[in-house]
Amino acid sequence: MTTPSSSPINAAPATRERDRYEIAHLKLVPKRHIGRTISAAVVIILLLALIRAFSVGQIEWSYVRDFLFAPVILQGLINTLIMTVAAMAIGIVLGVLSAVMRISGNPVLSWISVGYVWIFRGAPALLQLMLWFNLALIFPTLGIPGLFEFRTVDIMTPFVAAMLGLGISQGAYTSEVVRSGLLSVDSGQYEAARTIGMTQMKMLRRIVLPQAMRVMVPPIGNEVIGMVKLTSLASVIQFTEILHNAQVIYYANTRVLELLLVASFWYLVVVTILSVGQQRIERYFGRGSKSIRASV
Amino acid sequence: MSKDILVKAIDVSKKFDAFQALDKVNMEVARGEVACIIGPSGSGKSTFLRCINLLERMDGGAIWVNDELMGYRRDGNNLHELSDAEISRQRRRIGMVFQRFNLFPHKTAVENIFEGPVQVLGENPKEARDHALSLLERVGLADKANHYPSELSGGQQQRVAIARAMGMRPELILFDEPTSALDPELVSEVLDVMRNLASSGMTMIVVTHELGFARNVANTVTFMETGKVVETGPASQVLTTPASARTAEFIRAVHN
After folding, report:
1. Cα separation of A48 and A43, whole Å?
2. Contact pairs from chain A to chain B, CB under 8 Å
3. How high is the mean pLDDT of chain B?
4. Taking CA A219 as the corner, what is the angle to CA A213 and CA A223, rounded to the nearest 5 degrees?
5. Is the pLDDT confidence value at B242 over 50?
6. Closest partner residue to A191 among B55, B95, B105, by Cβ?
7. Which of B91, B114, B119, B123 to mutate to test the interface with A (most CBs of A within 10 A)?
8. A277 C-beta neighbours (distance < 10 Å), count
9. Is residue B168 over pLDDT 90?
């Protein structure tokens, strides 16, 4: 190995030795991924079959095209979005409130929170929606006797009933998300906030919740996306969201599948936009954090 | 000349379930003094420190800071527990530096410092920011003002934490093993800042294992073990000619 190459007898083996390590000029043949090629081919064949099935199936694509931007459908879409925002706003407010009450150390507040989560997570959202909508059956009027009073049927419109039903049951789930977020913040952060003289509320608002958001945003984003689709339950109590309006049309023209496709197209559009928005929010609340920064 | 006593603790006791963490601890710290508390782990030093600013509730005894009883209001023969807001007000004048820094990770160095002055003391944001920047300069980190804690070394984070405590213009700063979580080569930069702070006249209570710092900077040194004060006195006396055999043994063990 270490023989000096100046010796003529050993010159040839030394050159051969050097050639062995001279590989820069060789051609690189990439590894063959046979499994990937085969699976991609299978998927493409299945997709083509699916496309063919839909094109020869009993679908009148012209109906899908005509109703995609129909005013009734677009109005339904807007109502779906309004309901998503309203119900989610109630859900987040109740969720934060309930989670803070739970960890407050005040036994009364803590038990109220536990009871709330227990009851409203314990019944299906659809059932809760129907309970609110039919409230007039047990309480014909609402209000404070002597001060003001309303007929329940006037207040409990499909919109209000759906908003309360979806929002309050959502709050019970969001409460647990917020609580896990609060628990994820290191106890040293609570102590540091106290030593600079912060009160409990200020500590939560300025120090703890902003850090908890990093943990809370992905599941809450998930819940918002879930809520977009959950609002379709409101069609049962005659709220004119997109699925309800699609149904109204297909009851008249019997193009059931065409209109369901129209509705699913819009749900997909909304969910796609929300997913992109979620990534941006995650990036914002991840500021100062190494793990998030590295992945951006 | 009688000393101006800033911190006075009388018979402070604390139990964690069956474990007696503090057993009638008495201590006095004069204004402008540096008091070091040394002792083996589990001796109650940190617990005592945390009782001073009410991070820990004591079961018995009392602590006065600047002649104000911590955690209670005296009304004739009654002691009333203070509300959340009143306790927060008492804590404002007492800074604290933690072993694990506890900087706010979602705020930059300078934001960490002016958060308290703006949010708690209601200072003008512009002036608070300028003050925060001057404090960063004092701890030698003027160029790191807009860095997040995750972008700073342990020593730098701890110096920002000291600046954060100073930002509240406290009368007293508590240090809970401020160099114990640092890599050895980063210890001296933090001790330098603390030495600087001591010479500016800040009253400091420092729980530490750095006997060199205690010898050079502290006015008094207190040795604690199993929740009790074993010995307390001038730094040179306790560290070189301790009265108690246990103190001498501990000092020898740390030096080796």
Report:
1. 9
2. 76
3. 95
4. 120
5. yes
6. B55
7. B119
8. 12
9. yes
Pick the residue of B47, B50, B81, B104 with the most A CBs within 10 A to test the interface with A by mutation.
B104
Residues of B in contact with A197 (CB under 8 A): 88-89, 91-92, 116, 120-121, 168
Q: What is the DSSP letter of B70?
A: S
Residue A155 has pLDDT above 90, yes or no: no
Q: Which SS3 state, helix, strand or coil, does residue B108 take?
A: coil
Does pLDDT of A281 surpass 80?
yes
Chain centre to alpha carbon of residue B90:
15
* List of chain B residues whose C-beta atoms are within 8 Å of the C-beta of residue A210: 106
- Cβ(B14)–Cβ(B22) below 8 Å: yes
**Which CATH homologous superfamily contains domain A67-176+221-282?**
MetI-like (1.10.3720.10)
pLDDT cut 90: percent of chain A above it: 69
Residue of A186, A196, A282 for testing the chain B interface, max B β-carbons within 10 Å: A196
Residue ranges of domains in chain A: 67-176+221-282
**Chain A residue with Cα closest to B108:** A288
Given a cut of 90, is residue A31 above it in pLDDT? no
CB burial of residue A244 (10 Å; 0-12, 13-18, 19+): buried
Across the interface, whether the CB atoms of A192 and B103 are under 8 A apart is answered: yes
This complex has an ipTM of 0.93
Determine the residue type at B179: T
